[in-house]
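Homework-ish question, so no full write-ups if that breaks the rules, but can someone show me the predicted structure for this set?
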Amino acid sequence: MTAPLVRPRLLPFLFLLVYFCNLCKIIASETREREIRFPKPQSPYLSDAVVSRIAFGSCANQSAPQPIWNAIIDFAPQLFIWLGDNIYGDNRRPLRFFGREATVGPLKNTPRFFPSEESEMRRRYQLAKAQPGYSLLRKRAQVIGTWDDHDYGLNDAGKEFSEKNTSQRLLLDFLDEPEDSARRRQAGVYASYLFGPKGKQVKVVSNLSASTGPIFYVESWGHFPKERKRLYKLISDSERSGVFFISGDVHFAEITRYDCGCEYPLYDITSSGLTQAVERTVPPPLDYLLRLAAWLTPTTMRVYSSTCQYKSCTYAKQNFGVIEIDWDTIPQSIKFEVRSVNGNSVNMVKFSLTELQPKKMNRIHKQEKYRQHCILEIELPWFRRHQLAFAFFGTLAVYFVALIILVWIIASAGKTFVQKLKID
Ligand SMILES: *[C@@H]1O[C@H](CO)[C@@H](O)[C@H](O)[C@H]1NC(C)=O
Ligand SMILES: *[C@@H]1O[C@H](CO)[C@@H](O)[C@H](O)[C@H]1NC(C)=O
Ligand SMILES: *[C@@H]1O[C@H](CO)[C@@H](O)[C@H](O)[C@H]1NC(C)=O
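A: Not a homework solution, just the prediction itself:
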């Protein structure tokens, strides 16, 4: 007789935190917890099934073509999670530095963004819902989600925004939230979902938030050190294993991990956006510079792996995120991936679920290759933190000196030539 295989302790559940940006002020006032248990009658695709394929995305312009849905449908997710900026509900005035309608700079006298009427917001949601790929996905997968600033109604708006109740209603309509749902009566759209049978549960919590960040801004949570500490403490105190984050908002994708927040690495998979992406805003030769900038941006949390499409391990074209859990292998494993508009993998990490279990005296901290994931960017030496600026100004300086030398050479050559002419 052979001894039974020793099964690794199954994770009680995977805990998946969805965060979105700019709304931390609102969150502070959200205190009610609620839980939706599946199956819901209208979600035949999840029924009591084990969830092992999840896709997510953010930042979709309802008025632009959205070809990426084809790749998402090809992945065949059971669950799709909207991470915000599901539509662009607000309006943007042109960039102007001077005049009566200066929208940027020291002479700014007009806000760059302004909200839409309710009817216009509704129309934009209809456009989004009518995107052919998305309509098909809705038939094949359960769709859930949260908002960010542009679908909340206004760029960078917070708790004070007066139309927030309208925006909430419109988002919940878009997500087909039942009329009698408690989510329609609470302040904010936070929610928590529990999928799958015991031993193979996935919990999705959409609640918090803390990230604001321009292009390639490192470590957005760094702006909210207190909140971040509180969050880490919450995770540690709960003694929950399997917690990781998914996020959107920034118009590029990356995978990060922080190894000293709790007793196992905290991963964050950022996917942004479904249509909006940094590299689409610049003409072709500049995308190399953007990638170079991303590569030079000091980062301690970004996970560099050989599977990245680019050396920077950021991906600033249209993308979506993917989570695949293999519940049936021993040990169980999980894969985080970023995929391109064609469905190709552009960044991926895969590991055993046991890595997301608390370990007293975490052994991974002793490994050199993970040590840097314990450093916060703000703790880096100043020359590392500013290396991008050095590279930029250094390059400018070199060009400037080269230009001066060139001018000097031309001037002295010209002088010699004139003198020669005179002599002749
Ligand atoms: C959302 O956050 C608040 C405060 O941060 C917390 O009290 C509440 O339980 C959370 N809700 C969910 C659904 O996790
Ligand atoms: C969305 O797409 C439309 C059509 O291409 C474009 O006119 C509009 O500026 C885009 N909006 C944003 C926020 O990018
Ligand atoms: C918005 O909704 C909240 C919670 O449902 C409610 O307490 C508040 O009075 C509403 N505000 C307005 C302006 O209707």
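Now go work out the reasoning yourself. Hint: The first strand starts at residue 13 and ends at 19.
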